[in-house]
Amino acid sequence: MKTIESVCVYCGSSNGRNAIHFQAGLTLGRGLGEAGIRLVYGAGTRGIMGAVARGTMEAGGKVTGIIPRFLIRREANEVDLAELDELIVTDDMHQRKHAMFERADAFVALPGGIGTLEEIVEIMTWAQLARHEKPMVFANVGGFWNPLLTLIDHMKQEGFVHSDHRVRPIVVDHAEAIVPAILAAATEDRSSNGEDPAVIDRM
Ligand code: AMP
Q1: Where does ligand 1 bind, in terms of residues with CB under 6 Å?
Q2: Is the pTM of this model over 0.85?
Q3: I need a surface site. Which of 85, 103, 121, 178 has the fewest CB within 10 A?
Q4: pLDDT over 60 (residue 38)
Q5: End-to-end Cα, the chain, rounded Å
């Protein structure tokens, strides 16, 4: 069993139209804080990203924000950033993504845009290539991720997902279910070949 000490959350840097998504961010953040699990995220202080961080801190949780220097003005403000208990400023997006990956024991995709999609899809590709076996959760709030989940099923049916058993994200339909789902997944023996189930190798 792998202990879950930190969870990386990918989500929109905007609020989106439907207020349930912002609320889901707050709820997930509180759930992490109450469980004593550190939030690792992209350090945005606006949108759903800001909601997750705020929820975590309100519940007394720890937050690591990781952001490339060029995005600080666009996605955050320095006053709010000062409240994070750890801030890592990277030179570029690649360093940011890798630092987020290495510091997290599990990954969650809340509703978001193209950046969110890119990040969670890359984590699934690394799972497919056996670079990690960390739990991956889609928070399918209001059915937000249904189109992507349908596409992934379609790819599987058409025989294009070559390591199907490795690409099995957990899908939950409300934010309260995310932390329990991650903790339950961590108690399963996900190691199929005796290698370290958390991180098999560096990318
Ligand atoms: P969005 O879902 O588009 O609002 O973006 C959510 C977060 O993903 C923001 O912090 C973006 O900076 C980040 N992001 C956007 N594009 C990428 C990318 N190619 N790789 C990693 N993160 C990205």
Answers
A1: 12-14, 42, 44, 71, 75, 93, 97, 112-116, 118-119
A2: yes
A3: 85
A4: yes
A5: 23
